[in-house]
Specification:
The complex is a heterohexamer, with three copies of chain A and three copies of chain B.
Chain A lengths: L1 H12 L15 H10 L11 H27 L7 H28 L24 E2 L2 E2 H23 L5 H24 L3 H5 L7 H19 L15 H21 L6 H29 L4 H15 L8 H25 L8 H19 L15 H34 L6 H6 L1 H6 L8
Antiparallel strand pairs in A: 1-2
Helix pairs in contact in A: 3-4, 3-5, 3-9, 4-5, 4-6, 5-6, 5-8, 6-8, 6-14, 8-13, 8-14, 9-10, 9-11, 10-11, 10-12, 11-12, 11-13, 12-13, 13-14
Chain B lengths: L1 E7 L4 H10 L5 E9 L5 E5 L2 E5 L2 E10 L4 H12 L8 E6 L2 E4 L11
The chains are: A mainly alpha, B alpha+beta.
The structure holds adenosine-5'-diphosphate (3 copies).
Chain lengths: ~450, ~110, ~450, ~450, ~110, ~110
């Protein structure tokens, strides 16, 4: 099983030849905004636009809402009742920790001008030391930009929670998330949105197909493979303890995703409007496709299924939401529903990896899929595409693939190393059998999920 | 006195209760349970993975009755709870040596 | 019982003589915005306002939040635990389906210029084919307007779910909602907001008393009557399985309704501000009135009661929220609390129709009540009314009644026909007795609401 | 125990000598906006800014969301399952009642120009009688300002619910909240934000450390002491019945608090941006500090603990969120986590007061702590402080202390009197032993929290 | 040995447990149940419609004891659980032929 | 016939079920319970205050068996449920006078 997995990774790694090419630089959405952030000094004339600021404040609230409580509930409902609190705790603690790290070093490393090679950002904004209340990022306050991007740095490690639920030590969760954020998230974010080497090649990743979903997915798979399967996997697991909680979380993710994608326009403008529209259409399409596939395959359309489709549709449109039109969104949504559905089975049944809540299959595969599809679907004139200026979509596809591969490679390697290091520090990142059986709520947190009488 | 302990399908509870009321049984105690038996469980499928549910929801009804009406009670329950599909459940009859009504301290059959 | 019901409908139908009159055209709120949308070509000078766009993006997120998860939880908590997932599934699937239909044909039929008679919109925007990223609707992007209105097209069929819970086939839910959206919602939306015949007569429906609540309510009643009662109705039903879930949903509906009503101003302006204020005051008043009525009648003020009052107050103010002032809002709220409370009893006890979650009594009656009350309460100078320009309120009342009756008539007739058609297609829209007893969660979706141990 | 408590209060009262001093007046954030509201006539040139209006509309929705359902769930999950609905009901009914009171008299008394002494606002806006749809407050509609501030008037009495859960009569809840709002909240709000005597002395309370948290905390402690302990306090209470519900509510409070604090800038500007950033950093820091303290003291980091830390961090930054920078926020958050953690133990174990959900220890202590800390941390140039113009921070500290003491004094005295009056009216504000044992859900509201089978 | 099965009002559980502890009973097993008896259910009203709740929450306590102290245990339970209002519940005494402590395999009265 | 009532630790349920299946037991009924015994409860700490949890989650398994295999069943359960830590639970053997299969009306040992 492990060998199969290594094979898969190797085959992904087989494409380094791609790494030599480049297309015309093009700057869209977030990247645009970041570049401005990176060079505020050059825009003396910049003034604050209250409308854009209003939307960015709102978008920030929406994206925080995605993690707290959205993702927490989405994940919490999928596990057994004896582990529900531990999952909520993971998401919550990661959110807090990531915020502090973002403040201390993350923002600086990810989004401020860095070294010439384009590998990592600068150190001048550590602890936000030079931040003035009046600094602007484009036409909204830099404080808002820091906050908006912080919510991305919060949700990305929180996504990985799905890989290790029900069997990991809480201390390992904290250590892993902290290191991962600095070692994986910040660099990739810099490459794509901070003006780094991928941005220079013209990679398109409007709201985080590479930065958020590919990194989280690849890391999740690696971590899950290293951590091992839950007892009972795959044949005698208990079903999701609270599908209504799953749906509640998914609905919040959907609503919050409007802030994620439309907020990545960094303004309340036509780009934000189109991003919201295509985001929604992709989510709706993927949900229905997943539902019908499941209906056909199992005889019954399930609630957990349809909302998983939603998340797949949302993850997949994310990188593309600044470049495609409505028709493109429908195609992306339909692909997401189909491909991610089968990816779930593939990871669990074929690879035999207990990526427990399907982070790799839904987020990873979805994010990569969208990142690749955007090259064609975003092509100007094709199916309502809006955004691509490269000479032909094939060139763009190559750049997109480079982006995915680079992110995956870093994620896999860094995750492997981080886990090894943490294992040494914590005496193994997995709880004892007894604790796993007892449930993490009691074993790790001393609390009970439900005391209904 | 006998304690008649019946394991039935949950949706039959109302019917059994009504049938017992009709023959004059005024009290019973009901407990939720999970049953394992010839009626095998089922699988639920989430995201393409199968989850096996071994235990099926059942309801246990306990009625304490005087010896002489035990048979009638059993008959009544069987009639009301039967669907003739596998998994209908069982009735067990257990001896009761003493019964007490807490409110009054009354003992024996009057306490039922 | 059925005969009684037909009598009721007939008596409503007795007023066709009203249909000849008209008042001075007046254009308020949404209608205004739509007219602009309908004729963007004529406003070459239109530019985007980032503040208004920010608010419309936000309002869109809020209205989606009303359905997902708001309405879903509100309804889900009211049913038995064995049907909770089916209700969530209904709301979720309808939301997805309605989105795709809105994209494909709905927006075009409901909100773009149509035939001369004013009965239905045009076909030029099918599949949003001519949508450009830069098209504006007034001073915000047309994409945003499409999305905002889409969330209305999502919630309206989802409201009807309350009529058929715990006993309908899932396939019937999908078919019904899809057809209903095209056959009932789109036309009525066009009549009122798309520049159709009711708009021309000057009907006032700021945010959907007619378009949303009257149509949903009348259709719900018709469908419930045709579908038949749940086993055990009315004497041995089980109480709402999770009033806390009901309250959570109601609270989300309340918050989201700010987007619904204040968003219908299509701008972040004084009209939006007043809409938010009156919406809130009506909700608060109706909640308290309902609570006190219940307290008096049953000896105990209940949580399900107070939040039902909230929804009644919100539905009732909806059509009026662009035209009344605070005092008018209090009167509307108080009327809503009283009238809808008694309407619940009337439908279930007197008509004997198992409109299970009181869609007709709360939304239908509320929406109609508000639509009628606005004629007087919106009257300029009366009780702080702001909006009515007609010569006298009686004339306006006639138009308002016309609007309600037309919407009800179409809803009843179309629902009747749709149900007949679907029944034929699905071999009866009702599940078997055994499935009803087992609960739809297991029977239709193969899932369990709560596995708490 | 009571005597100990009186001692505590007395010692707080020992500082009246402070009440003679003053610092240079300074006007920040909310206060600023209010002053504008108070004198719209003088700003003939004011025009509406759609961006600021968009943000204030959004912020209003966010703050309502804090109470409904945020706070309700936060509190509801902490009690026993037999009382969960009663807590939700308390929060919901208070929200409705406070809205009506705000409409009737509250806004006028709290935020419109009043008597010369600066003790209470005017009566000209009773029932919002002179409100026109076009009135502006600064550059957003007055209607929006009324609504935004209404949501503060909603959450403040709702915070006090935590003091009296599981044992109070529902009628007493209504009466207490109504009177308290008028007698405590409105005056203090006027003092600080309405241009009253504390505003004149230059007190800094950006978003409600004094107005909201100190008043609620002090009143909660007083009420809890008068009401007496729950049966079983402190040794044989049952643990929180649903920590997941607590976390869901806390997460909503966090998100909503962005509206609370950043909305208090009354504009989508750099002040709002910084307020959001420092709010978030304080919350994240306090959460982690609380978690680590608990981990150390009890061996296990709990979910209820970490989210309580969040709320402490949010309450503490509230008054300071217009004046401190990121570093200051971290310090405030860390102090909040530490101090409030120990305050919980102090109130329950040392004072022996059953302030059941720790309103005084978390909100009261947090609000006061932040109000005092801002004098130093907001000091220009110190640790990124932005806001204080007084000659030295010691002077400002004196004013801040005055503000706290005045608010506490009024809260304690008024609460004492109100409770006495209500006790007389309701024949004792506490339910019977039998009802307490049965649980308030059944006893007072005739409903059941969970009917899961 | 006897199994003493008591059906009581839930809020009396603590009292009964404490009373039993006092007379030296060190173990018991508690099960949630719903009771139907002379104490009729109640109605709840939602949106003006009545819902009848037939079954009331009860708690079943099972204690296995040596024969000789059975009466004392019963007495203790009656005293602790009594409210003298209808619905206080019942005690049934059932013979136990064997008892085993799983941890040690001990059998008979020592296992209790 | 005997009713073998075992009170075990919840996480041992699967093991016991499997062990019983292996020796040919085809039916059993499982009930959630809370136990009080030598294995004392634990405290949970929220916001610095201690909450005592007296009752620990347990599971009751009831299996009705013919007299002759009762001992084997007991043995099997003991073996499967044992962790040798305090709180492993008890087995009580109770006489069953009659058993009925509801589906068929069959009586006696064939009904098990
Ligand atoms: N030997 C037994 N002891 C205790 N309970 C039993 C026993 N056999 C069956 N049951 C209970 O009866 C239920 C129904 O039994 P099952 O074998 O499925 O069908 P049937 O009753 O139709 O033979 C089971 O789910 C279980 O709860
Ligand atoms: N014959 C019986 N068999 C089993 N349980 C009974 C019986 N009669 C009563 N009970 C249980 O005892 C409870 C109390 O009985 P009830 O008749 O209401 O009042 P009382 O115990 O005061 O006579 C019932 O709710 C039920 O759980
Ligand atoms: N006398 C008894 N009657 C009924 N149940 C008992 C009795 N003694 C113990 N139990 C049950 O057995 C469980 C385990 O008992 P305990 O005394 O804690 O440990 P052990 O079984 O190892 O001696 C208890 O939690 C309780 O459910």
């Amino acid at each position: 099983m492990i060998s199969r997995y290594l094979l898969l990774l190797a085959s992904l790694g087989l494409a380094p030849f791609l790494f030599g090419q480049s297309v015309d630089p093009l700057v869209t959405g977030s990247a645009d905004a970041v570049v401005q952030a990176a060079a505020p000094a050059t825009e003396e004339e910049a003034t604050l636009d209250s409308g854009n600021t209003a939307w960015m404040l709102t978008a920030t609230a929406l994206v925080l809402f995605m993690t707290l409580p959205g993702l927490a509930l989405f994940y919490g409902g999928l596990v057994q009742s004896k582990n529900v609190l531990s999952v909520l705790m993971h998401c919550f603690a990661i959110a807090c920790l990531a915020s502090i790290i973002w403040f201390a070093v993350g923002y600086s490393l990810a989004l401020t001008p860095g070294n010439e090679d384009g590998w990592i950002g600068g150190q001048t904004a550590f602890f936000l030391q030079n931040l003035s209340v009046d600094s602007l990022n484009g036409d909204h306050p830099e404080t808002v930009w820091i906050m908006f991007q912080m919510t991305f740095a919060i949700i990305t490690p929180a996504l990985i929670v799905g890989a290790f639920v029900e069997r990991i030590k809480f201390s390992a969760v904290l250590l892993f998330s902290a290191l991962w954020l600095v070692v994986v998230y910040c660099p990739v974010c810099y490459w794509v949105w901070g003006g780094g080497w991928l941005a220079e090649r013209g990679v398109i990743d409007f709201a985080g197909g590479i930065v958020v979903h590919a990194t989280a997915g690849a890391s999740a798979l690696t971590l899950a493979a290293m951590l091992g399967r839950r007892h009972g996997f795959p044949r005698s697991l208990k079903p999701p303890h609270n599908p209504g909680m799953v749906m509640t979380g998914a609905a919040m993710l959907w609503v919050g995703w409007f802030g994620f994608n439309a907020g990545s326009a960094a303004a309340a403008d036509t780009s934000a409007g189109m991003a919201m529209l295509v985001t929604h259409l992709s989510a709706a399409t993927a949900s229905l496709v997943w539902m019908f596939v499941e209906w056909r395959k199992t005889g019954k359309p399930g609630l957990v299924g349809i909302v998983t489709g939603t998340i797949a549709g949302l993850a997949t449109i994310t990188p593309a939401s600044g470049s495609v039109g409505p028709l493109g969104a429908i195609i992306i949504g339909a692909s997401a529903g189909l491909v991610c559905y089968y990816a779930c089975g593939f990871v669990k049944e074929k690879l035999g990896i207990d990526d427990s809540l399907d982070v790799a299959a839904v987020h990873g595969v979805g994010g990569i899929l969208g990142t690749l599809l955007v090259s064609y679907l975003g092509w100007k004139g094709e199916l309502g595409g809006l955004g691509i200026n490269a000479d032909n979509w094939q060139d763009q596809l190559v750049v997109q693939a480079q982006g995915c591969l680079a992110a995956i490679a870093l994620s896999v390697v860094a995750t492997y190393i981080i886990v090894k290091v943490i294992s040494a520090l914590t005496g193994g990142i997995r709880v004892s059998d007894e604790e796993e059986t007892k449930g993490l709520d009691q074993a790790a947190h001393g609390e009970n999920g439900y005391s209904l009488s | 006195m006998k304690l008649i302990k019946s394991i039935i399908k949950p949706f039959k509870l109302e019917d059994v209760k009504d049938a017992l009321s009709e023959i004059g049984i005024e009290g019973m105690t009901v407990i939720e349970a999970k049953g394992f038996g010839r009626q095998k469980g089922h699988t639920e499928i989430y995201r393409g993975s199968e989850y096996t549910i071994d235990f099926l929801p059942k309801v246990v009804i306990e009625v304490a009755v005087p010896d002489d009406i035990a048979d009638k009670v059993i008959e009544t329950i069987v009639k009301a709870a039967k669907t003739e599909k596998i998994g209908d459940g069982k009735i067990f009859v257990i001896p009761v040596e003493q019964a007490v009504r807490i409110r009054t301290g009354e003992q024996g059959e009057v306490a039922l």
